[in-house]
Design a protein that fits this description.
Radius of gyration: 17 Å
Helix content: 25-40%
Number of helices: 9
CATH architecture: 4-Layer Sandwich
Shape: globular
CATH superfamily: Carbon-nitrogen hydrolase
Order of helices and strands: EHEHHEEEHEEHEHEEEEEEHHH
CATH class: Alpha Beta
CATH topology: Nitrilase/N-carbamoyl-D-aminoacid amidohydrolase
Number of domains: 1
Structural class: alpha/beta
Strand order of the largest sheet: 5-4-3-2-1-14
Distance between the termini: 44 Å
């Protein structure tokens, strides 16, 4: 499968301008035969706490409609970040649409970033989400989730590809690739980290989006520039790594549960 990373310098809270940026990347990805294109967290708004003005209802979301049209027109699956208002709550979501424009995955961030006050404005999701794209089962996660290995163990029971869409700031830059590599090694899965670049009103962002092999090495990456990078990935690579060392068979999850209970 040919995957594309659309690393964006997201224009703060300007959905229309960011749609234009995304469409340009979608067109380029289409010309290069990308099967699955991934954009950063809160793709059209940046990491905002203005949920009342920036959030959308799932049922009539103009942003979802935009990406559905892009996916259908240019014949690829697309993952993007969006703020969803639902039943008096707000969620930080990753949505995946397929090449037919169907929503095939809708994940709510399980771990809002409390140090950044995200937990004040956003509710926590409580389940993983999965979809099938080409030969891969895919699981999305979002930014701060990356620091919690338990959910990646749960995801990798099904998924050979786990994506991490993010707004990961420069001040915590050393942790980004270290954690992406760790999650790939621990779970023997491809990990694709898609970050924003540039600046919002509060922070600088590092970019450094990357595709990580199930063995932990970086296959391809981009530094701080805005743009598209592409990588070919194969499920057989996941299968081969998992056959070489069967980590899942050696895990003792019942013991871990008892240890957590103290």
């Amino acid at each position: 499968m040919k995957v594309g990373i659309g690393q964006l310098n997201i224009i703060w809270e300007n959905k229309e301008a960011n749609q234009k940026k995304c469409k340009n990347i979608v067109i380029e990805a289409s010309q290069k035969d990308v099967d699955f294109l991934i954009f950063p967290e809160m793709t059209l708004t940046g990491f905002t706490m203005h949920t009342n003005t920036m959030g959308e209802a799932f049922e009539n979301s103009e942003s979802i409609s935009f990406f559905r049209t892009c996916a259908m027109t240019y014949k690829m699956a697309i993952a993007f970040g969006i703020i969803i208002n639902s039943d008096a709550k707000t969620y930080n979501n990753c949505i995946i649409v397929n090449a037919l424009g169907e929503v095939i995955c809708n994940y709510s961030k399980i771990h809002p970033f409390t140090a950044g006050k995200e937990g004040i404005y956003y509710s926590s999701g409580d389940q993983m989400a999965f979809c099938n794209i080409e030969e891969f089962t895919v699981a999305p996660t979002i930014c701060y989730d990356l620091r919690f290995p338990e959910i990646y163990q749960a995801a990798s029971k099904k998924a050979g590809l786990i994506i991490v869409i993010a707004n990961w700031p420069e001040i915590r830059a050393p942790h980004w690739h270290a954690l992406l590599k760790a999650r790939a090694i621990e779970n023997q899965s491809y990990i694709i980290g898609v970050n924003k670049t540039g600046r919002d009103p509060s922070l600088n962002y590092i970019g450094k989006s990357a595709v990580i092999h199930p063995f932990g090495n970086i296959i391809t990456q981009i530094t701080s520039e805005e743009g598209l990078i592409i990588s070919d990935i194969e499920m057989k690579e996941v299968d081969e790594v998992r056959r070489s060392i069967n980590l899942k068979a050696d895990r003792r999850e019942e013991l871990y549960a008892r240890l957590f209970q103290g």
